[in-house]
Amino acid sequence: MSTDIKSLGSFVWSIAELLRGDFKQSEYGKVILPFVVLRRLDCILEESKQDVLDMAASLPEDIEDEARDTLLSGVVGQNIRLYNLSRFTFASLKGQDAQDIHKNLVDYITKFSGNVRDIFLDKFLFTDQLKRLNDAGLLYQVFDRFTQINLHPNAISNIEMGYLFEDLIRRFSEISNETAGEHYTPREVIRLIVSLLLINDKGALTGSGVIRQVYDPAAGTGGMLSIAEMEMKALNERIRVELFGQELNPESFAICKSDMLVTGHNPENIAFGNTLTQDAHADRRFHYMLSNPPYGVDWKKYADPIKDEAAEHGMSGRFGAGLPRISDGQLLFLQHMISKMRDDEQGSRIGIVMNGSPLFTGGAGSGESEIRRWILENDWVEAIIALPTDLFYNTGIQTYVWLLTNRKDTARRGKVQLIDASGERFWTSMRKSLGSKRREIPPEACDEITRIYAGMLNGEGNWGDVSKIFNTTDFGFREIRVERPLKLAFAVTPDALVTLREAKPFLKLEEDDQTQILEALQKFLPADKRWLDRSDFDKALSTALRRASIKVGAPVRKAIQSALSERDEDAEVCRDKTDNLEPDTDLRDHELVPLNEDWQDYVKREVLPFVPDAWVDETYTDARDGDVGRVGYEINFNRYFYKYVPPRPLEEIDAELKALEAEIAGLLQEVGE
C-alpha cells in the first residue's frame, strides 16, 4: 500500500471521528463506506454531468429503459455503466444552503441509474444513515470533508481504491470486533494465487480474440477479481476478461458492484446472496476460479437446503462427495467451485486459500475425508502451498493455497506437489502491524514460489527442501479394525456388589427382588472363588438363582455378569453362541494401512509380532469399494516437512544455568546491601 493511500485512509478515518457519540463504533462503516463510493462516482460523473442532462432532455419519453440506459451511460464514457440525472454534484451541493443538504443529497442519490440506486438504497441503506446524520446535525460536516477528497480514477486507480477499502474495512472491523477476514484478502496473497494460476497459461492467453471468465463465489469487495483481471491484461492487453462473483455481505457486495460499474464490467455478473444455498450462476462454467472462503464459520443456520441438495442430486449435484462437519464450510465452497469446471479442452483452474482444517480434519469415512478422496481420486489437485503465519488481518493461523485443475499436464498426472512456503525466506516483517497481520510476502518471494511450482521441484536444487512431489495415493489409507479377545474373570466381591446395585437394569427391579438377588449371590456363590471361564461362571450363576427360586430377564443377568467381572489376561477367551472369539471393545484399535500396501502384509509386520492373539474384523469394510477397512485421505504437511532439531548439549544447558544462578546471587547480594 502506497504512502498516498495510507494518508488518504487516515484522512477518511478522521472523518469517522466526527461520528463519535452519535453513532456506535460498529456503525461507522455504514456511514463512511457508502460516502467513499458516492464520492468516487461523483468524481467520475462530474465532467460529463451537463452532457448527460442534455442527452436526457433530448430523449423521447417513450424510449425503452434499456436503450435509455445505454445512451446515457455512453455519454459518461465507454467503460462506464452508470449515470446520474440530478442537477447536483458534490461541488454544486457545497454551494447550496447547508439547511438543504439532506434534501439535495437524497435527490442526488435517487436520480442515479437503477443499478447504482439499488446499491445505495437497498444494500447500503444510505438514506437511513443520511437522516441520522442530519438529525444529529453532522451531515454537512461529513459531506464537506468528503468534498476535499479527489477520488477520480486519474488520481486514484481502481487497484488503489481497493487498497483504500481494505484499509478502511480493517479499521472498522477492529473497533467493532468484527471479522475483517470475511471481507478481503491481503493483496500480496491474491497476487500469489493469480500468479500460480496463470504461470503455465501465458501462451494460451496471448493473441487476439481471447476471452476468459473469472469467478469468485465469496467475492467480498472484489479484490481477487480485480487483480486477476489486471494480471491477465498485463499478459495481453487485448484479452477480454469477464468477471463473475457472489457475495453475502450487503456492504461488501455494494462496493464490489460499484467497482464493476466503474470499470465497465457487467454489474449483473455480481450477485447478492448465499452462494451455498442460492447459486446465482448455476448454469455457468468458468476458466478461472479463485476464492478465500470464511475459515471455521459454521453453516448450521442454512444446513437444511444444503443437505436436501446433497440428498436429492448426489454426485450429479454440488455436494455429492460429502458434507463436512457443521462447524466449518470451507470444503462446501471448494466442491461448489469444482462443480463449475468447464469440460472442454481449455478446462478450468482453481485457486483457493483455506486454513489447515480441510487438509486433515475427519477420519476415514467422514465427510471431509470423503471429499478429499473424491478430489484426489479424480486427480484434480496440482499443488498445495503452505503460507507463512500472520499474513491476514484478523487471524495469525497458517493458511494454505490449493491449486486444482481438470486439465493437468502429463507430467503432473497422478501427482500432487506440496510446497512449504512458510519459512523465513518467504516473508518479511512489516514495520507496523495491521491487526493480526505482522508479515507480508514480498514480490521476489512470490516470484520464487511461482517458479518452484512451475518447475515441479522435488527435493532438489536450492529450494528443493521446501517442495516435494507425491503420488495422489500416498495420501490415502485403509483404516482397519484390530480386535483382541475378551478375557474375563468373575468373583463376588463387595466392590462388585456395589457396582451391581448401581446398574440401571438392577435399579428397575422392586426392592425386595434386589435384596433376594444380592442374598442369593452371597449365599450360593463362594466369596473366595474366582472363575476364569465365563461359561463356568454362567453355570454357577444359573444354579445359584435356581436354588434361590429367582428368575431374571436377560438385561438383569447381563448386569450381574458385568458387575461381577473384570479383565484378566489369565482368564479363558470368551466366545459367543456360535463359538466365535468375542472381541474386547476396550482393547479395540484401528490401524491406518497405506493405500498402496496389502493390509494382511501390514498386520503380519506391524501388529501380530506385538499382539499375537489379535485379528482384523473383516466385516468393517469400505462403503464404496466393499473391501476390508475404510478408505480415508489426509494431507499432513508436518509429516512431510518435519525437520529434526537435536536437543542442546547438556554441558551448554548446565553452563547457562550456572550463569543464571550467579546472576541471581549477584542481584540478591545487591538487595541485601
What is the strand and helix layout of this fold?
Elements: H1 3-16, H2 28-45, H3 49-58, H4 65-76, H5 90-94, H6 101-110, H7 114-123, H8 126-135, H9 139-146, H10 158-176, H11 187-198, H12 202-205, E1 211-216, H13 223-235, E2 240-247, H14 250-262, E3 270-272, E4 288-291, H15 303-313, H16 330-338, E5 349-355, H17 357-360, H18 367-377, E6 381-386, E7 399-405, E8 415-420, E9 428-434, E10 437-440, H19 443-455, E11 467-471, E12 476-483, E13 488-490, H20 494-501, H21 504-507, H22 511-524, H23 534-547, H24 554-563, E14 565-567, E15 589-594, H25 599-606, E16 615-616, E17 630-633, H26 637-641, H27 650-672
Parallel strand pairs: 1-2, 1-4, 2-3, 4-5, 6-8
Antiparallel strand pairs: 5-7, 6-7, 8-11, 9-10, 12-15, 12-16, 12-17, 13-14
Describe this structure in words.
This protein has 673 residues and is α/β, with parallel strands linked by helices. The protein folds into 3 domains: 3-175; 179-478, Rossmann fold (3-Layer(aba) Sandwich); 488-567, no CATH class. The chain is built from 27 helices and 17 strands. The strands form 4 sheets. Strands 3-2-1-4-5-7-6-8-11 form a 9-stranded mixed β-sheet, sandwiched between helices. Strands 12, 15, 16 and 17 form a 4-stranded antiparallel β-sheet that branches. Helix 2 runs parallel beside helix 14 (250-262) and helix 7 runs antiparallel to helix 14. It starts with a helix and ends with a helix. The mean pLDDT is 91.
